[in-house]
Every structure is written in structure tokens, then in C-alpha cells.
Fold this sequence. Notes:
The protein is mainly α. It is 69% helix and 0% strand. The protein contains ten helices and no strands. The protein has helices at 10-34, 44-69, 79-104, 113-142, 155-174, 184-205, 209-212, 219-246, 260-263, 272-302. Helix 2 runs antiparallel to helix 3, helix 5 (155-174) runs antiparallel to helix 6 (184-205) and helix 6 packs antiparallel against helix 8. It is flat and about 55 Å long. Belongs to the MAL family.
Amino acid sequence: MSTGRTSPDKCGLYIVFSCLRVPQLVCIISAFFLVLDKGMRWGDISNRIMFSWCFCIIGTLIIVILELYMFPTDFPFCWYNFSITYACYAALTCLSAAIFYPITYIKFLPYDARRNQAIAATVFSCIACVVYVMEVACIWECYKLKEIPCYVHTMPGLLKVLETFVACVIFVFISNTSLYTDQPALEWCVAVYSICFILAVVAMLMDRDEWESRLPVSFPIFHLGLTLLSILLHFTALVLWLLYHFDEKYGGQPQRSSDVNCIDRTTNGMCTWDQRLAVAILTAINLLIYMADLGYWAHQVSVGTGGQPTDS
């Protein structure tokens, strides 16, 4: 990835700040404080959704402060890559919060003011997601990235963002250690999620000219190998997770009704069986993303493309 720089004029940067950063902060802060009620009972997933909103608030504030006190051209790295990457993750974070919050919390609330506040928070999270997506498009135009390589705006860059984000969502669910404790096969699944996440991050960091030249193999072959390894690991994790959680022969529970926690809904949040199913679905989704990634790099190797990924 080229490290050459470009920067928009100050007017363009001011427009990005005033028209996008402020609405982002307003929406996320509104969502956070709408559900910040001491009288509400929280589940583990709901607590992590609150944390995700805090992450977006803090991240956006840091970017605003940096842009106000240090113009992007003063940074020792490509500012547009950092801001676009953050905006992509923030958009996915707000979208996932808007999906999981109603599923894990709102549907258990009585029809009163608290429910209305929670629904309003979900709407604000959806709006924030849209504004973050608009930021990506706006930065693309302001920095004229059509003429400048930007990893996130390539097919492998987008896939890596999705792979790491899905892994983070999986980590949220497996933070419930009862899902895998004292079962070596399931502990292997957790190790797979961690290993593949690290490999994806390494692949993203290696996409720089100064690092590519140090690789013993060509850049597409390097990515092809990492992706193939991640696919094999995810396949084993998916098979083992399904067998040990949903096959009676291995002590699993194939029916949701067999989990007492799912029948007795006296507390908010997802029951254990639902969390197991969510991890299985997310693992399958990530496996499909890795397969698409493998297809891209296999094509790059077959046509003999150089180190730079191309836009798709």
C-alpha cells in the first residue's frame, strides 16, 4: 500500500467535521444516555453494546481533537487510511448494536417509557451507522482516493475489515466462559478465533511497501497462504462447535427447549443456547468471508498480479 499523502483543503475538512462528526457524536451520545437508566436490569450482551457505543464516542472524539489541533498532513502515516478504517469499524459497530440490542434486550421490556427509550436508542444507533458510512464516502472524495491506493477501499481490505469485525462479535459471545470451559475441543475453537483474528490483523499491517519488500514470497502468495490457513482453522472450529453444542452424542443440546435458561425468561439477555447458535452462525459467516478472500487472492496469483491489490 502506497504511503504517499494527499490532503483536502481546510474547507473540505471543516465540512466533514461539521456535517458528519457532530451528528455522529450526537447520535451515539443520545443512544448511550437514553438507555443509561439505573432502574434497568442489564445482561452481558447489553453491557457490551453499551461499551461499543462508548468506543464510538471516544474514538470519534479523539479523531476530532487530532484534526482540530494537528492537521492530517502532519501525521507520520496516511491519515485517510486511519480515518476510513475507523469509520468502517464504527459503522459496523453501530449496525451490530442496532441489531443485537432489540434481540437481546428490548423484546424483554414491558411496553412503557423504558421500552420507548430503548427503541429510540436503537434508531439513533442506526442513524449513526448511516452517518459513518457517509463519512467514508466523503473522505474518499475529499482525499481524491480514486487516484491513490487505499487498502480499505479494495476488495481484500474490505474483507479483512469484515473478518476482524465478525471475530470481535464472536469474542463478545464467547466471553461467557461457560460455553467452552473444561472442553478441549471447544477451547480449541476459541484458540482458532484468536489465531485467525491475529493473522488478519497482521495481514492488514503488512500491507505497506516497506513491509512487502521484506516478505520471502510475493504479496499475493503471502495473503493466499494466510487465508487458506484461516479457512482450514475456521472449518475445524465450525465442525467442532456444532458437534459439541448441538449433537446429543457429544453432550450437545439440539433443541432450544432443552435449555432451561431459554424457557424461564426471568432475566434479560440471550440464553446460553442462543449464544451457542449465534457463535455457530457467525463462524459460518466468517468462513464464507474467508472463502471469498481466498478466491480473490487465488485469482491474483493465477493472473500474476504484483504486490498491490486492485479495486473490485
